[in-house]
Amino acid sequence: MNNHEELIKQWLKDNRARGTRFLQILVQENSTRGNESSAQAVIIEKCRQLGLNLDIWEIDRDELKEHEAFCCDRQGFEGNPNVVAVLKGTGGGKSIILNGHIDVVPVGDEKNWEHDPFSGHIECGKLYGRGSTDMKGGTAALIMAVEAIIATGIKLKGDIIFQSVIEEESGGAGTLAAVLRGYQADGAIIPEPTGMKIFPKQQGSMWFRINVKGRAAHGGTRYEGISAIEKAVLVIQKLQQLEKNRNIKITDPLFNSIPIPIPINIGKINSGEWPSSVPDLAVIEGRMGVSPEETISAARGEMAAVLDELNQQDDWFQENPLGIEWFGGRWLPGNLEVDHPLMKTLSESFVEIKGEKPVIEASPWGTDGGILSNVGNTPVVVFGPGITATAHDANEHILLEDLFAASKIIALTLLKWCEVSE
Amino acid sequence: MNNHEELIKQWLKDNRARGTRFLQILVQENSTRGNESSAQAVIIEKCRQLGLNLDIWEIDRDELKEHEAFCCDRQGFEGNPNVVAVLKGTGGGKSIILNGHIDVVPVGDEKNWEHDPFSGHIECGKLYGRGSTDMKGGTAALIMAVEAIIATGIKLKGDIIFQSVIEEESGGAGTLAAVLRGYQADGAIIPEPTGMKIFPKQQGSMWFRINVKGRAAHGGTRYEGISAIEKAVLVIQKLQQLEKNRNIKITDPLFNSIPIPIPINIGKINSGEWPSSVPDLAVIEGRMGVSPEETISAARGEMAAVLDELNQQDDWFQENPLGIEWFGGRWLPGNLEVDHPLMKTLSESFVEIKGEKPVIEASPWGTDGGILSNVGNTPVVVFGPGITATAHDANEHILLEDLFAASKIIALTLLKWCEVSE
């Protein structure tokens, strides 16, 4: 066995430039929502070269829409396929899903980026660009691990099911489609940007939209109107209080080092059309974290309760109650036992490569792991090389050293989990 | 003289339906910014029928742009002309400008309107629609007054210079263009929606834009970012405090019944692109009122000072200072003596028609009067039939009774001010 591990480690050491170049090409293809096709083409071409069994299909909204885990406001998937590529095992070993999402979030204010957001610029051991960390770096680590096994001629007993899915950033319709297409396994690794931490538990999350009404008036007699912006400030303050109250209750030690275990992020506000009019509508959009121990509906209930409270406390809201809408993205929480065999195998491989124990925590954000585990009955660990802090940020980047280490750790895990066929 | 007045009053009484219909047609033409042409066509056709000397021209940005009172972010004026129509006097009397703006503000959230915003719907003596009050109703009162004089065969000594201008809601480029084209007079009436009050002083105002920076991050680790929305709340609170401090200092009795003499209206906020990202930029836009006794630059200085204060107080703003931009609309304040002859003439006519003394106040909003008086050296009174509270609001409407009364008061004022040529 040691021989196989050494072969793999050596190949990965010798092929760093190859892995780096692959990630660079992947980052250079802008794959924001609705534009995933060209990055998927890079994935498909690579899988074809590796001789994997490819399954490429466009999501059929009609097939998925009745499923209770389906949560997606996108109408068309034409031209932007899901990709699954299987390395069939010789039989008898445990199977594994390696799941990465190809979609990336928008770039934000481009002025905050030092380089073009899709440059793939490399400097001081870091590769920059939208998606480099979240999570094309993770996907590159998966591909390198699989390529190492194939290139060294090692045969495994269990199947490796590599998935490059769309829609993770918007509610997981891509992974749901893969699960409903029949892809399940004895375990799964999702290399989201954990900064090399291992996350057996994953925070769930969901998006909300709150409509805050005002009454329009001329700005010069603004006292004759009701500013939707001023009213929205009350809502923001209430949400901040709710976030505080919910997080005080989180006592799981896996959350110990996370400042806000289940955040309520206010991601958007839009109000007003004209500087000198009192705005009559403010729309707040955000993301509410869901604890691994709670249900989606319990979390929604807490949000509804504080908005009801505000509706009671404020004269204007009594007449013009706040409405909440749960739309777009929703990620089910995940909750794997810390001593699950997959956790043990991954942790051992981590120690072998890094020479130290891994940090085991709860993930501060939702992933497609909730769908894989809850709908697909597949035990999921989230572990990857990207840097949490730079995900969704300007100047997103990844440390290439972490990428190389992660690919080794994942490759060793594959050898042990799927078992080498001698 | 009494005979002329009786003739005028009788004609206006007999032609109420005619005036109502004219206003209705005018309201039915959507004349939001950039779309003023079809409403101006209605005005032009009417002035042509009345035999007025028409001057129709498109504003030439290049001619105006160097003027210090020019304040306009609109590039093209093609197809949306300014209109001036003169009823030449026989000579020897005082001239008067009757100024109305044809542009209307956007309709806001259409769901808040009971009828189509451009319906011109009439019910219970009220005519509804965007612009009915601000200020096509005022313009209709002017036209009715002029038509009454012409229809009754009365000749005046002084010139009546009727103006239907664009761009009032965005900084007054239309009136500035008319002034620079040479239109000046011994007095001016602007029938903005004062609710039949007489405003010798006008609040100035100007638009501002404040950029509030944040630092993007994934919403699940929002503590790693800085929310531009949370930071924007601090700015909003600071502006609310500034408004309070500025208004405490206003002691002019003309402002006695105005809850906030010089408001700071926060009309717009836009921040964020994605519910589960920490937003890295919030843009606040609004309108700052300027007291008739202060200069534009003094008011700007007060705003700059409080933002500087915030830049000092807050660690994040120390590194990422707030920037302010004065853009778009700017209306100079106006300040006519309460005992100016035009005030006396208008007040007398008011008493004759209404049988009571007019309410004399300071206008709670800027008008083109600032340009007419400061640049055009023309004494300005603002007085009109529209209802301040419904201007810029959903279900904007005007009381037709007020429209008829205003047209009589203005017509009598014309007889006295311009003098009847026997």
UniProtKB/TrEMBL annotation, chains A, B:
Give the required cofactors: Co(2+); Zn(2+)
**Keywords of this protein's UniProt record, alphabetized?**
Cobalt, Hydrolase, Metal-binding, Zinc
UniProt cross-references to Pfam families, sorted A to Z: M20_dimer, Peptidase_M20
Please tell me whether the keyword Metal-binding is annotated for this protein: yes
Where is the Peptidase M20 dimerisation domain positioned along the sequence?
Answer: 202-314
NCBIfam families, A to Z: DapE-ArgE (TIGR01910), PRK06915.1 (NF005373)
Which family does the similarity line name? Belongs to the peptidase M20A family.
User: Which protein are we looking at?
Assistant: Peptidase
Organism per entry:
Neobacillus driksii
